[in-house]
Amino acid sequence: MIKIAPSILSADFSKLGREAEEVGKGGADWLHFDVMDGLFVPNISIGLPVLKSLRACTDMFIDSHLMIDRPLRYASLFCDLGSDMVTIHAEADQPVELIKALKDIHEHGRKAGIAIKPATPGSVLLPYLEYVDMVLVMTVEPGFGGQSFMRDVLPKLRGVRALIEQYKPGCDLQVDGGIDVSTTPLAVDSGANILVAGSAVFGKTDRAKAIADLRAAADIKA
Ligand code: DX5
Ligand code: ZN
After folding, report:
1. Which pLDDT value is given to residue 55?
2. Whole-angstrom Cα distance, residue 116 to residue 158?
3. Counting atoms of ligand 1 from 1, which one is nearest the CA of 145?
4. What pLDDT is attached to residue 60?
């Protein structure tokens, strides 16, 4: 079952509550919440106060993607303020610290994810698989919405799906970056089952149609 997770990075923050409601009513499964610290990525986005406000106005599943250095410092706070899942980056600290952060997320009753950037090999995920519910394979360099999907990540995505089947069956595989109706079939065919889409949803005036179009595209054979 494919899940669609609109990224609110491309939403209008002056009316975030209504934007979330619109995609929820439009059939989105999750809300993807992109957190950037200006260090791990060359951009600063949103953080804890915005998460708290969003949590207060929606019951949707909130999937926080932490693009921050040393996520152990903040992972539990993102749980406490209302994330249903918190994903941290494999490049953001030493393995021992990252495993502590993943355990912390579970101890706070939330789901945990591990993300890799386009150039990071899939094998880097191996020490983390036993501690996660989801793997996120980035299909753009993290930091900005609206970039083009990197097709050369597809062989790695297939490899990560194979690792999941071997070592952690049932673990979700998310893709993030440049997902639209033309790239969705490629990502799904390569094993992704959760699709993050920013501009392909919030960049469209009819969000329900945008979500339905992505869902239909997921059924197309690549
Ligand atoms: C990029 C973010 C993405 C971004 C996706 O660093 O992690 O979630 O919002 O935006 P699109 O779908 O426009 O590439
Ligand atoms: Zn993201």
Report:
1. 98
2. 14
3. 10
4. 98
Percent over 70 (pLDDT), the chain: 100
Q: Which of 41, 137, 139, 140 to mutate to test the pocket of ligand 1 (most atoms within 8 A of CB)?
A: 140
Mean pLDDT of 112-116: 99
Strands 3-6 and 85-89: what pairing? unpaired
Average pLDDT over every residue of 140-166? 98
Is residue 222 predicted with pLDDT exceeding 80? no
pLDDT at 1: 87
For the domain 3-218, what is the CATH code? 3.20.20.70
- On whether the CB atoms of residues 33 and 10 are closer than 8 A, the answer is no
φ/ψ (deg, to 5) at 57: -115, 5
Instruction: Spell out the SS3 assignment of 126-183.
Output: HHHHHHCCEEEEECCCCCCCCCCCCHHHHHHHHHHHHHHHHHCCCCEEEEECCCCCCC
- Can you give the residue ranges of every domain in the chain? 3-218
Tell me the torsion sign for CA atoms 51, 74, 116, 118: positive
* Residue whose token pair is 């986005």: 45
> Which protein residues touch ligand 1 with a CB less than 6 Å away?
7, 9-10, 32, 34, 65, 140, 142-147, 176-179, 196-200
